[in-house]
Every structure is written in structure tokens, then in C-alpha cells.
Amino acid sequence: MSVLVLVLAVSAAxxxxxxxxxxxxxxxxxxxxxxxxxxxxxxxxxxxxxxxGIALMVAGMALGAxxxxxxxxxxxxxxxxxxxxxxxxxxxxxxxxxxxxxxxAGLALLxxxxxxxxxxxxxxxxTAVTDPVRHWLIIGAMIGLALLLTTYAKRSRLSSGPVLxxxxxxxxxxxxxxxxRVSGQxxxxxxxxxxLTGWQPYAVLALGVTGLILVQSAFxxxxxxxxxxxxxxxxxxxxxxxxxxxxxxxxxxxxxALAWEAAGLAAIVAGxxxxxxxxxxxxxxxxxxRNLQPN
Length: 295
Hints:
The chain is mainly α and about 300 residues long. The protein contains twelve helices and no strands. It has helices at about 5-25, 40-45, 50-70, 75-80, 85-95, 100-120, 130-155, 160-195, 200-220, 225-245, 255-275, 285-290. The radius of gyration is 19 Å and the shape is globular.
């Protein structure tokens, strides 16, 4: 594994984690009438804290794009999932909550899962699939599932809605990461003209804006511990599917390796859930007021 890819991916995760916390701090005060509306972004643009969070997220996405250009998506995506560690660190500083057993267990599972998946799978590059049908089947399945989740989220926006929206955004961001890598390859092969004559950069932009609306709507209606774990778990899974499915990434496929890869992914998801449920993660104004009420 390249040290440069490791540094870039972890730096990207740091920016993303800090950015998500700042965004949720601002989005939780937005009016519920903005739910799933582009107007939500227009209102949040007036909030300096949210703009700071977006700046950090953009920096994280840029660093992640460079990492994707230097390494396999199946390697970079699990490292990007560590953004939750940095989100917890900032949230813990804000809330003064100790990590406790739950926090340390989540940290161990997430870090151990990432390490296990990378060591067992040995992600490496290969020849990208040129069949457009395979590309569109995988991308269409990810986007279709995201649309389905968003439809159900509209019906239950204050119960399971935030989790469903975060899952949908994670799927879109995973596809966005895959298309970002394709865009980087087109740019390196033919320069700006080659990049702009393809559909991929425009899809990256559309997926980014759509995912942003979904994420901010989830942040607006629920505490970060409900939305961020789902987002953080769905993105690497979608990215790995795209990487192996049509970008040519290769993982070890012998029985032992597959078992350890599955165990690593399961540990990543379990660690994400434990960290997301930690009391240090920011909550909404309503939940905070309820917690402060005397019994």
C-alpha cells in the first residue's frame, strides 16, 4: 500500500469528518419546511458554520479524488470510512463526553476492520471493464436503490427517514467516487478536452449536489448518530462494488481471504454503528432540550 495514498485518504477522512459535524450543527436549526428541497442549501449558505463545513468537505473530496487517482477504490474507500473517527473526536470536544467502553470498542472495530479488509483483500489494480452495459447496470442499480430509499424516507421523515436518506446519499457518493476516478483517468489521458467531452464529470457534479441535499435533510431532522453511520457504511460498500464491478479492481478471492474480507467489512459496519450511537455525537435541538429536562 502506498504511503501517499494512505496519507491522502486519511487526510480526506479528517476533513470530511470535521466538515460533517459543522454541517449538522448548522442544518439542525434549519426549518423543516426545507426538507428535501434545494431551498435548504440556499438557506444554509447564509450560515458561516455550514460554509466552513462545506469547505472542509470539498477539501476532503479533493484529497479523496487525488487518492483515488493514485490507488484502487477498494483500498481508498475503507480508509475514507474512518471519517467517523474524526467526527467523533470533534463531537467529543464539543460535548465533553468521555469515550467509555462503547467508544473504544467502536474505534477498535472500525480500525481493525479496515486493516483486516485491506490486508486480506490486497486491493490491486487491473483492467477496467469496457462493456458499457455492465457500467450502467451497476450504476443504475445503485442510483435506483437510492431513489427507492429516498421515496420511503419521504413517508417517514421523522422516524426512519434520516437513516434512509443517509443510506441513499452514501450510495450516490460511492458511485460519485467511482466516476471521479474515471474522470481523473480521462484527464490524465487526454487533458481538459478529453475530460469535458465525457459525461462522467457532469454526473459527478449532479450526484454531489443530490447527495448534499439528502445529507443536509438527514442532518436537519435527526441527530448525527442516526445519519452519519449509515452514510459512512453505505459509501465504501457502493464504492467497492463499483471498483470491482467495472473499474478493474481486484481482491483476493480464495476462501480464506473472502472470509476475512467479509469479517473486516462486518467489523467496519459494527464499529461505525457503535461510534454513531455514542453520546458524544451531536443531537438535534429537540433531543438536547428533552435530555436537559428533569425526570
